[in-house]
Design brief:
It contains 14 helices and two strands; from the N terminus they run αααααααββααααααα. By secondary structure, the protein is an all-alpha fold. The chain has a domain at 10-17 and 43-282. The protein has a two-stranded antiparallel ribbon with strand order 1-2. α1 runs antiparallel to α2.
């Protein structure tokens, strides 16, 4: 008998879609000099609502694998095909990220090509956690999750400084990849990339937590999810006394804090959508998530490079001369609305673009 994936849950697609819509919102203000504070990342240590978006997306990626991979991985004969399909998909996502950065480097006349990025990190997390979902059992997955947190915590706690540019993650990324980083200063030889190699340990832990939470959701362990959310939030708050919440370093405290919020969001979405029949808001973004992110990012680059985006903001800010931040927000909301129309049209025609 051939195992099949578990039935698709509307709550997962909805939560993934709302996360993608939030990505588009915070990534595309009319003017970066005029943005409401909650729509910006913390400068370094600290936490804002925007800092939750990417870890929530990776968490949901883990949840999805608990439904798409884990049920079929119980059949040893299916594992080679599952591994092959998983790694091919991860490679396509990574290549898409590389091409997107090539477009940015060309259109925006950047000083250097950037090697790492959001899609590259998603590809890495999908590949590693997906292999764990296929090849290992729950106990091993929990052990790897704890090992990631403890090992990364030891590295950071043993460092001389966690300051920008000179922390262990920045130093390693600079040594291995400079100048192909998000930021690089050739005069000082210092660089930094918020999606770099060492901080990916934290991102992997966030994705793996999603895999385990997804397994509990698939098993109907709603009470366990509530306990997990509470435990992660408490542990994250306590850990922050030694290792600050920091999205760019993706510290273990950040993993636990955002993990607790992500589990709580998953539980709430499950209760509202799957059990109480509320509309699956965001589902259309969710079923075309990577395609929507990639397409919208390319569109944003073209708009900025052509000057059309600046013209749009200037036009709106002229109508709202005393509220430049509101004009900036309206640009972002308009961008999200355009892409909601795109994914609505795709869904209406049952077109689902899988990368």
């Amino acid at each position: 008998m051939t195992a099949s994936p578990s039935p698709r849950m509307g709550s997962i697609d909805a939560l993934r879609g709302l996360t993608v819509a939030a990505m588009l919102l915070v990534n595309n203000p009319g003017d970066w000099g005029h943005v409401y504070a909650p729509l910006l990342h913390a400068d370094w240590h600290g936490f804002t609502p925007t800092d939750l978006i990417f870890p929530l997306f990776l968490f949901i990626a883990g949840v999805s694998m608990a439904f798409s991979l884990s049920p079929r991985a119980g059949e040893p004969a299916l594992r080679p095909a599952l591994r092959s399909g998983l790694l091919q998909r991860a490679l396509r996502i990574a290549v898409a990220g590389a091409v997107l950065h090539l477009l940015a480097w060309w259109l925006m006349d950047l000083p250097a090509y950037r090697l790492w990025g959001v899609l590259q990190r998603i590809a890495l997390c999908v590949a590693v956690v997906g292999l764990l979902a296929i090849q290992t059992h729950a106990r091993t997955q929990w052990a790897v999750l704890i090992a990631l947190l403890l090992a990364y915590a030891a590295i950071l706690l043993g460092a001389d400084s966690l300051a920008p540019w000179v922390n262990p993650a920045s130093r390693l990324d600079t040594a291995l990849f400079a100048p192909l980083l998000y930021k690089y200063d050739p005069l000082t030889g210092l660089g930094h990339d918020p999606e770099g190699l060492l901080s990916s340990l934290g991102a992997l832990a966030s994705t793996l937590l999603g895999l385990r939470a997804g397994a509990w959701l698939r098993a109907g362990q709603v009470g366990g999810l509530a306990v997990l959310a509470t435990a992660c939030l408490l542990l994250g708050g306590v850990a922050a006394l030694w290792l600050p919440l920091n999205k760019q370093l993706w510290t273990p405290s950040f993993v636990l804090w955002t993990g607790g919020l992500s589990v709580a969001a998953l539980l709430l979405a499950h209760l509202l959508v799957d059990r109480w029949g509320a509309p699956a808001l965001g589902r259309r973004f969710g079923v075309n998530a990577i395609a929507a992110y990639l397409g919208s990012s390319a569109m944003a680059l073209l708009l900025m490079a052509s000057g059309a985006w600046g013209w749009l903001y200037q036009t709106l800010s002229a109508l709202l001369p005393t509220a430049p931040a509101l004009a900036s927000l309206l640009c972002a909301l308009g961008f999200v609305a355009v892409w909601w129309g795109v994914v609505w049209a795709l869904d209406a025609r049952r077109i689902y673009l899988k990368i």
